[in-house]
Amino acid sequence: MSIFDFFKKSPSNTSKEKLRLDWMQVDMHSHLIPGVDDGSKTLEQSIDLIQRLKGYGLKKIITTPHIMWEFYKNTPEIVVKGIKTLREELSNQDIDIEIHGAAEYYLDEFFFEKIKRGEQLLTVSDNLILVETGFIEKPAIFLETLFELELQHYKPILAHPERYFYLLNDKKLVHDLLDRDVFFQINLLSLTGFYSKESKLFAETLIDENRVKLVGTDCHNGRYLDALETLPQSKYYEKLQALDLLNKTL
């Protein structure tokens, strides 16, 4: 043994811990219906992504295509048809995992009117509904829309709050949302620094303050999962597993 051998890292130090998501059981935020939004583009790609998610230990996937008036005019019928196609192909390939369809609604005046008209809305489970906003500015009718959802007996889940710049320095708004009992769902990828350093730090703060009710992969493509596999390197990987999350109840 040479003197340089003392400075070599042992295999145990260099080996990387494999990503496991069996502790959350259910991924409730993803974009896996092919060709309906900015997520998976083909059925083949969708099946490949689902197989990878199953390989991490997930038992169930609730996929949530964007519904956004200007860009993604998805409907419950489109989502139901897409889920039927996925289920049939999963069955054909003997891939045993539950998959259900919901939506990620963009919070704007068109969505507000949809709620007021009493249109059918896709929920993650029971009355839980996933909503998102633009990343830079707070919507003008943000709180009004959340209130209208509550009047219609829906329970809003705010998708990836750690990614909204307008929330970063607005502690009052954060507390207003929490006082309204809006559930916060963070993206696991935020803890890897995938989006930005600011999003990573905000996600960590929300975890430290016990503000997180749900987590999701927000999987759009293989690049997302490649980055997600670095999550075990985060000091928050174990903290995530200790949270009292609602994922397992969905």
Structural summary, described in words:
The chain has 250 residues and is an alpha/beta fold. It has one domain (20-249): TIM Barrel (Alpha-Beta Barrel). It contains ten helices and nine strands. The strands form two sheets. It has a six-stranded parallel sheet. The chain has a three-stranded parallel sheet with strand order 1-2-4, with helices on one face. The chain is globular and about 45 Å long. The relative contact order is 0.15.
Present the secondary structure layout.
Layout: H1 11-14, E1 26-27, H2 43-55, E2 60-63, E3 66-67, H3 76-92, E4 98-101, E5 104-106, H4 109-116, E6 128-132, H5 142-151, E7 155-159, H6 165-168, H7 171-179, E8 183-187, H8 197-208, E9 212-216, H9 222-228, H10 237-242
Parallel strand pairs: 1-2, 2-4, 3-5, 5-6, 6-7, 7-8, 8-9
Summarize the structure.
The chain is an alpha/beta fold and 250 residues long. It has a single domain, classed as Alpha-Beta Barrel (TIM Barrel), CATH 3.20.20.
